[in-house]
């Protein structure tokens, strides 16, 4: 699945889970969390959804431009996926467990997002 299909699958799953987790936050966690923690949950959902779309776009570009630097698209997609796991994942766990040390993981997810956007820009210039 090196022609972008895996990135499309991961983007679709990321979007699906973002809707599920957003609904859980709105209906299952409302009233059980402070406003600040609910805002943290919503920020995690927001960034997950944005980067699920980025994965979809990267997958589409990889399929369209499969003959041109396939690994570049994969690297961008991997960075977006890593960002979702580290950024959104650490915030979800922070809210659910109140383990404050997880806040130290979140910036690494932000760096992975930045790397993904940078790699996407670089790969776009190469095509």
UniProtKB/TrEMBL annotation:
InterPro entries: DUF423. The chain crosses the membrane at residues 46-64, 76-95, 101-122. The keyword Transmembrane applies. One of its GO terms (cellular component) is plasma membrane. Signal peptide: none annotated. Its main location: membrane. Coiled coil: none annotated. This is Uncharacterized membrane protein YgdD (TMEM256/DUF423 family). It comes from Geothermobacter ehrlichii.
């Amino acid at each position: 699945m090196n022609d972008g299909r895996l990135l499309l699958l991961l983007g679709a799953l990321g979007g699906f889970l973002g809707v599920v987790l957003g609904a859980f936050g709105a209906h299952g966690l409302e009233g059980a969390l402070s406003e600040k923690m609910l805002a943290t949950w919503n920020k995690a959902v927001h960034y997950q959804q944005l980067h699920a779309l980025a994965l979809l776009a990267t997958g589409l570009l990889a399929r369209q431009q499969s003959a041109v630097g396939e690994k570049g698209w994969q690297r961008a997609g991997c960075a977006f996926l890593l960002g979702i796991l580290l950024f959104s994942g650490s915030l979800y766990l922070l809210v659910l467990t109140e383990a404050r040390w997880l806040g130290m993981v979140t910036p690494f997810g932000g760096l992975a997002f930045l790397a993904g956007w940078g790699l996407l820009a670089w790969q776009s210039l190469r095509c």
